[in-house]
Amino acid sequence: GDPSKLNPELGDPSKLNPELGDPSKLNLELGDPNHIDDNTPQSFSKENAEGDVVGTADVERRYKIKQMIKHAWDGYAKYAFGDNELKPVSRRGHSAAIFGKTRLGATLVDSLDTLYIAGLYDEFNQGRDWVKDNFNIDEVDSFVSFFEFNIRFIGGFLSAYALSGDEIFKDKAVHLANKMLPVFNTSKGLPSSFVNLKTGTIKNWGWAKGSSVLSEIGTLHLEFQYLTYITGKQIYFKKVEHVREAIKGIPKSDGLYQNLINQNTGQWSSKTVSLGALGDSFYEYLIKSWLITNKHDIEAKDMFYDAIDAIESKTHVFQTPHGLRMVTGHTNGRSDGQMQHLACFSGGMYTLASHHAVNDKSDHYMEI
Predict the structure, then answer these.
(1) How far apart are CA 219 and CA 63, in angstroms?
(2) Radius of gyration of the CA atoms of the chain, in A
(3) How far is Cα 118 from Cα 313, in angstroms, rounded to an integer?
(4) How many Cα neighbours within 13 Å face the side chain of 178?
(5) pTM value?
(6) How do residues 181-215 score in pLDDT, each as one tens digit?
C-alpha cells in the first residue's frame, strides 16, 4: 500500500507503456480500430508479440466496439451534452439525485478514458474542452454521492490524466477530492455517503441507519492512492488506508465481509454478504490495488484471495441444471438464490484472479 511503490507503467503519464497508451505507437497491423475503413473491416490473420493469432474476427470486434462507443457518445453529445445523463428514449438530459442539481457532465467525464483508448481523439478533445470551460463545483450547494463522484469524476479525471498527461484533468481531480474530504469526518473515520460540496455537510442514506456501505467505502483506494502519488500529499492515501485497516480489523464470520458497517461502533450492522449491490466493487478494488502497485500491496492481495475463497465456500457459487454459473447473495447463512446484474462483473474479477493467482487455483478461478 505504499504510494511510493506504485507501478510507474500504470501510473506515471511520462512512463506509459507505449503499447497500452501512446496512440502514435499502436501496432496498426494488429488492427488499430482508428485505422479501420469505416465500411470494410480489414481481413487478415497475424501473430502478435505473444504468439496469439489476431485475425479477422478480432479486428471486426474492435471495429464494432468502436462503432458502439461512437454511437453512444454521438447520442449523448447531440441530445444531452454537458448533462449528467441522457434519457435515450425521450432524448433529453437528466440528473439522478446522486449527482445533485448541477449540470456537471457525469457521462462526459466518465467516458473520457474510453474515448481515448478507443482512439476517438476528436471526441476526447471535445469532452476535454467542455471540462476546461464548464466543469465547476465551487457553487454546487446540494448533497452529492461521495461514491459516485469518486468513481465517475475523480476516477474519470485521473484516468484521462494518466492516459493523456493533460494537467487540466489532474487539477480538476485534486480540487474535487479536496471538496470531498469532509466525508471522512466521522467518529471512526468511515466515510459518509453524501456531502454538500459547498458547505461540507455530510449525511448517510436514510435506510442505512448510520452505517457505511462496504462497496462505497471500499471503492476509494485506487483513486486516492493515485492522488497521493501524483501530488506527493499523504492525506489522500492516509484516509483510505485507515478505512481499509478498519474494515480488515472487524471480526469476520467464515471470513466474509458484510455489506454495512456501523459508523459509531466500527462493527458490522448487516448480516448480508454480496457480490452484487452494496458489496461488489470492494472486491474489485482489492485485486486492482495489488496490481497497480506492481504487486507490492500484499495486504490487498491477501484480503482479496481470502475473500473470494470464503465467498465460494459460503455464499453459493454454483451451476444451474442448464449450465449457468451463478453467484448469489448470502443472508444469515443462507443463499438468497438470486444473482444480481451488478454481480456480473465477477466474471472479469475471477479472470484477473486466475491470471495473477499465486496459489494453485489459477485453473479453478478461470473455470468459474
Answers:
(1) 32
(2) 21
(3) 39
(4) 10
(5) 0.83
(6) 999 999 999 999 999 999 999 999 999 999 999 99
